Amino acid sequence: MPRTSNETPGRRRSYRVLVGLLVVAVLAAGLILVGPRLVGPLASQGGSLLGGSACTVETAEGDIGLDRETAKRATTAAALLSRGLDAPDTTGIDDAVIQRLIDGPADDAGPSLHCRGSAANDLQVEELTPSGLTPRAEQVRVAMAEVFGDQSLGGFAPGGVGQGHGGESTHYDGRAIDVFFRPVTEENRRQGWVLSHWLVAHAEDLDIQYVIFDDEFWSAHLARGGWHYYEAPAPANEILRHLDHVHVDVIGGGDD
Question: How far is residue 94's CA from residue 108's CA, in Å, rounded to a whole number?
């Protein structure tokens, strides 16, 4: 015989609803407490951007999402201010974003801006210009000079280069530029990251494919975006690890 109860179905339903609400409240409180600790490490590994934001900047106050145009303005402002020059209009950009892009993390130089990748797939293959760069790579060189002034550049030469890089290096196609920050010091690393962030923010406009610096790389082919660990080939010295220079290359076109 089924057991009887003094509890009516209505009262039982009310009790279950109350328990359910309490569980939801506890879970929500837990997410509020640990949320920043979950998002932060993922973002630092290049895997998490806020919501639908094209880019995210990690700040001491938390991660701040930016659209692509705002990221371009912010990184340009940081580049000019770090050179002691006047910045463009930064209305609407949190001061913490600009400061983080200039100073980098408080404890160690490293990536602070993460952007989603987006590689154009309808570009034509290009021939070298007299500088030894393809027109797309030359466009990157000119754009960097307009913002960063004179830089120590390498990885290309009139007529092209045929040695000094890996077997299938984009340097041999005139599609890559190395920007040197020597010697390897904390300040030079921070300056290298100012440039690296600017390149990533402007990657869509300049058809940039890869940016490599300081044991990290960013790829236009990775839609999830972010920075990822770069495994340097042996002997993994400061040159091969890209500790003393920022490598930037452009999309080759065709089947690339």
Answer: 22
What is the C-alpha separation between 68 and 53, in angstroms, rounded?
8
User: How many residues does the structure list for the chain?
Assistant: 256
Distances 88 to 74, 78, 79, 188 between C-alpha atoms, Å? 9, 10, 11, 24
Element (H or E) spanning 59, and its range? Answer: strand 55-59
Torsion of CA 136, 139, 145, 147, to 10 degrees: -100
Closest to 249 (Cα-Cα) out of 193, 203, 190, 191: 203
SS3 state at 25: helix
In 3D, which of 55, 204, 224, 208 has the Cα closest to residue 141?
208
Q: Which alpha helices (H) appear in 149-225, and where do they start and end?
A: 186-201, 203-206
For the chain, list the strands marked E by DSSP: 55-59, 62-66, 113-115, 153-154, 176-180, 208-213, 216-219, 228-229, 245-250
Q: Retrieve residue 193's tokens.
A: 């990251």
Residue 49's closest CA among 63, 31, 68?
A: 63
How far apart CA 70 and CA 55 sit, in angstroms, is: 9
154 strand-pairing partners: 178
Q: What are the tens digits of pLDDT across the range 36-95? A: 322 333 333 343 565 689 999 999 989 999 999 999 999 999 999 999 999 989 999 999
Distances (CA, A) of 205 to 111, 119, 184: 21, 10, 30
**Residue listed under structure tokens 């299938």:** 168
| Pair 202, 71: CB distance under 8 Å | no
Q: Using DSSP, state whether 183 is helix, strand or coil.
A: coil
**pTM of the full structure:** 0.81
Q: How far apart are the C-alpha atoms of 116 and 27, rounded to whole Å?
A: 30
Q: d(Cα 168, Cα 170) in Å, to the nearest integer?
A: 7
